[in-house]
Amino acid sequence: MQKVQWKPIRNTFLPYARQWIDDADIQAVTDVLQSDYLTTGPKIKEFEQAIAQFVGAKYAVSFANGTAALHGACFAAGIHKGDEVICTPMTFAASSNCVLYCGGNPVFADIDSRTYNMDPAEIEKKITARTKAIIPVDYTGQPAQLDEIMALARKHHLTVIEDGAHSLGSHYKGKKVGSISDMTMFSFHPVKQITSGEGGMITTNEEAYYEKLLQFRSHGITRDAKYLEKCDGPWYYEMQFLGYNYRMTDIQAVLGISQLSKIEKFIDARKQIVERYNEAFQAIPELTVPYQHPDTDSSWHLYILRLKTDKINADRREIFEALRAQNIGVNVHYLPVYLHPYYRELGYERGLCPNAEKHYDEIITLPLFPKMTEQDVRDVIQAVTGTISYLAK
Ligand SMILES: *Cc1c(COP(=O)(O)O)cnc(C)c1O
């Protein structure tokens, strides 16, 4: 078959994700810059309370970013050297790096090939006497099978740390993500549902986790009289374990607060684009549109098309490059984590999670963000349908 020279179908490159910052956001940040507190000020608690209220959790603790928040959650869960933590391979590396930070060993359980989330039956097979926790990821925004995972955790006395970096605003059986697991992490990186520049949060209903997380993100220091070994005077504080400076600033927090007030609008816009994509692609025999489990209602961080490569005269790479050449900013989420060189050096090998490896070979992430225009959406649909119909067998 003749190789085609794909030409741009639009003048500007359309990215796969982009934040939406408006004048109110800028004003809120400016106000904080002119205030007394750039960090450790009142906006921190205000953002934490707003997130806790939004997801329906008792407590929320903010962090400098989502990765730091995951580190804090693993620390609070008591992950130590030699402990095993069950992780999904189909995620960003931070979801299991946090286990390594604590000296633990990530154990990868394969994904369900319909939802692309960690399969509870695979999790159960991986539980041993050394297992301490499970870290499910709500991949693309679709919540993992949380009831099954929580039941396994209760049966085997494990902690569930949900990576909700994709799923702020998603629901599982009518409940908001962030109110269900022992601890849930959210990220406010600019590609996520709302942004604070960099930023992260853990929500929990357990007071003990809450207190540990607060102390961990500030050097392991406490001033709380009920925890001090002694008290020399009003200046006195103690560093009781090795924590970090993982604090969010008030500048980040106020941006987060302002963004959170618009989250329903952002999610509605994402859902409308997803509907358009599904309508355009679901009848194309060479493509699989994202399956949604009836227990879930996704806030749609990512829209991932799976290619039926046996029906196409091209592999994923050629299709990816064809779409990029047309100025459509497609992406791939993700290389299975254990195939990264750092993990392979730790001893993880190809073949560990066959469903995840096959998934990786066949996926393309399409642009999806609330500020996309009607023309942007049409460009993506035109490029994808044109490319696939040309390359179909
Ligand atoms: C974005 C992301 C993180 C990390 O969040 P940061 O705020 O960028 O540190 C962790 N897990 C997943 C699945 C993510 O997408």
Features:
single chain; 393 residues; alpha/beta; Aspartate Aminotransferase, domain 2; Aspartate Aminotransferase, domain 1; 2 domains; seven-stranded mixed sheet; three-stranded antiparallel sheet; 13 helices; 15 strands; 37% helix; binds pyridoxal-5'-phosphate; UDP-4-amino-4, 6-dideoxy-N-acetyl-beta-L-altrosamine transaminase
List the helices and strands and how they pair.
Elements: H1 23-33, H2 42-55, E1 59-63, H3 66-76, E2 84-87, H4 94-101, E3 105-108, H5 120-126, E4 131-135, H6 146-156, E5 159-163, E6 171-172, E7 175-176, E8 183-187, E9 200-204, H7 207-216, E10 221-222, E11 238-239, H8 250-260, H9 263-281, E12 287-288, E13 296-297, E14 303-307, H10 316-325, H11 341-345, H12 354-362, E15 363-366, H13 374-391
Parallel strand pairs: 2-3, 2-4, 4-5, 5-8
Antiparallel strand pairs: 1-9, 6-7, 6-13, 8-9, 10-11, 12-14, 14-15
Helix pairs in contact: 1-8, 2-8, 3-4, 3-7
Bound molecules: pyridoxal-5'-phosphate (PLP).
Tally of DSSP β-strands: 15
Rounded average pLDDT: 97
Name of the CATH architecture of the largest domain: 3-Layer(aba) Sandwich
> What would you report as the Rg, rounded to the nearest angstrom?
22 Å
Distance between the termini: 11 Å
The computed structural class is alpha/beta
Shape estimate: globular
- Quaternary organisation of the protein chains: single chain
- Bin the helical content: 25-40%
Q: Give the distinct bound molecules.
A: pyridoxal-5'-phosphate
Number of domains: 2
> What is the CATH T-level topology of the largest domain?
Aspartate Aminotransferase, domain 2
Number of helices: 13
CATH homologous superfamily grouping of the largest domain = Type I PLP-dependent aspartate aminotransferase-like (Major domain)
User: In CATH, what is the class of the largest domain?
Assistant: Alpha Beta
Q: Catalogue the unreliable spans.
A: none
Strand order of the largest sheet: 1-9-8-5-4-2-3
Beta content comes to 5-15%
Order of helices and strands: HHEHEHEHEHEEEEEHEEHHEEEHHHEH
Major β-sheet profile? 7 strands, mixed
